[in-house]
């Protein structure tokens, strides 16, 4: 017994006529009669009495009808809901972003505008750089706005913005007198860095090697930048971070000094999975973003 069997039974029960029911179901009367006979044989009970005027439901059919009708309605509602959700899923775009990226790019406004202009349901979530990459590879995200992963084997990367690094020092520090620094100027200082879930650390490690020194790290912080600033205030070390993301309004005892001799930059952009079929919503969003920023 399947849902089509119930559909045929319900139609015949309501019309009490095989010819009329067959026309409404767009099948032949012979085919409909065979389906009803097959259903009766399967359940072992007669559903209709044939007569000159058509068919009459049996007592068992009177019991069976409301149950079949309810089950058919449940199935139809379920089917409609599945298709509705599937259609909604097609219009959904899952975007990840790493800390600081939306702020620098002013992407929050663009994402909100794209919701309205493109008619796409956009779901945004914050992750570390490394977790952005993992979620794109695992198809949990359609794209991510994050730091360049430097991995062209797994990702497509579209650059959107880059910035230099800077050092946060205490104003009483002798380094605070300088307008700019070279990396070797902090060679003998304890450093406060971000942890390894941030790709900027990979960039800095590469620059440390070029400068031929192994940094002495006092602490590796996560999202809590206040902890890094507090360590500097306590003379525990100097903090190396992205220039445009350093905000010292609440720390009047600290200064920011740019580092000018680095080849590498903090580069952020859009990553998508390499060799994956880029869906229409991803293309729409990227095109919209480029148009909004004249890229």
From TrEMBL:
Organism superkingdom: Bacteria
Q: Name one Pfam family in it.
A: HTH_1
Residues folding into a coiled coil are none
Name its species: Halanaerobium saccharolyticum
Q: What is the lineage of its organism?
A: Bacteria, Bacillati, Bacillota, Clostridia, Halanaerobiales
Q: What GO molecular function annotations does the UniProt record carry, in alphabetical order? A: DNA binding; DNA-binding transcription factor activity
- Family annotation (SUPFAM superfamilies): Periplasmic binding protein-like II (SSF53850), Winged helix' DNA-binding domain (SSF46785)
Put simply, this protein is called: DNA-binding transcriptional LysR family regulator
Gene3D superfamilies in alphabetical order: 3.40.190.290, Winged helix-like DNA-binding domain superfamily/Winged helix DNA-binding domain
Q: Which family does it belong to?
A: Belongs to the LysR transcriptional regulatory family.
What are the entry keywords?
DNA-binding, Transcription, Transcription regulation
**Gene Ontology terms: cellular component:** cytosol
> Which positions fall inside the HTH lysR-type domain?
1-58
């Amino acid at each position: 017994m399947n849902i089509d069997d119930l559909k045929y039974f319900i139609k015949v029960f309501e019309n009490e006529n095989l010819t009329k029911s067959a026309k409404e179901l767009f099948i032949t009367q012979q085919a409909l009669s065979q389906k009803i006979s097959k259903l009766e044989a399967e359940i072992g009970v007669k559903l209709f009495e044939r007569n000159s005027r058509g068919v009459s439901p049996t007592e068992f059919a009177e019991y069976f009808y409301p149950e079949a009708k309810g089950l058919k309605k449940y199935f139809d509602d379920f089917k409609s809901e599945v298709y509705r959700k599937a259609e909604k899923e097609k219009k959904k775009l899952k975007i990840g972003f790493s800390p600081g990226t939306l702020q620098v790019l002013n992407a929050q406004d663009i994402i909100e505008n794209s919701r309205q202009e493109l008619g796409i349901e956009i779901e945004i979530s914050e992750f570390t750089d490394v977790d952005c990459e993992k979620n794109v590879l695992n198809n949990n995200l359609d794209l991510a706005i994050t730091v360049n992963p430097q991995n062209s084997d797994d990702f497509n990367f579209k650059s959107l913005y880059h910035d230099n690094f800077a050092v946060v020092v205490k104003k009483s520090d002798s380094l605070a007198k300088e307008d700019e620094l070279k990396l070797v100027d902090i060679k003998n200082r304890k450093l406060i860095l971000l942890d390894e879930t941030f790709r900027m650390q990979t960039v800095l490690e590469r620059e440390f090697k070029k400068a031929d020194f192994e940094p002495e790290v006092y602490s590796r912080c996560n999202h809590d930048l206040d902890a890094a600033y507090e360590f500097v205030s306590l003379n525990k070390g100097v903090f190396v971070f992205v220039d445009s993301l350093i905000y010292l309004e609440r720390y009047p005892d600290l200064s920011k000094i740019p580092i000018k001799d680095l080849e590498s930059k903090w580069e952020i952009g859009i990553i998508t999975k390499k060799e994956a079929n880029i869906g229409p919503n991803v293309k729409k969003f990227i095109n919209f973003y480029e148009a909004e920023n004249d890229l």
